[in-house]
Amino acid sequence: MLIDEADVYIRQRGHDIDHNAVVASFLRTLEYFHGLLFLTTNRVNDVDDAISSRCIATIVYEPPVPEAARRIWKVLAEQFDVKLSDKLINDLVRQFDGISGRDIKELLKLSAKWCRQKEVKPSLKVFVSCSQFRGM
């Protein structure tokens, strides 16, 4: 079973009694669960210790290395029908070093929509401008 974005169930307990009850209930449910459970979160530093202690394995995805990022830019550009030159892709990889595949995807989607709306070609300047809305 997969619980995507499981933050509400696995976030560290604190002063919010309602949230604490959700985590405690989830912990009780885990004790009786007989199967394989995948939980996803972007908040790896905010997982409750009791939840972490019940995990058999943890997989951490690091940001892609430059060559992998280059492939992600190319594949997603084709998927979204955005024309990016090899030079622009190289510039994007350098400019946005260390961002996740998801960030690449969302930045590409946002920039493509902006370019279509303004009827301009994709450029590094456009991507840098749009990146501010992604907090990059």
From TrEMBL:
Stored InterPro entries: P-loop_NTPase
Protein name: ATPase AAA-type core domain-containing protein
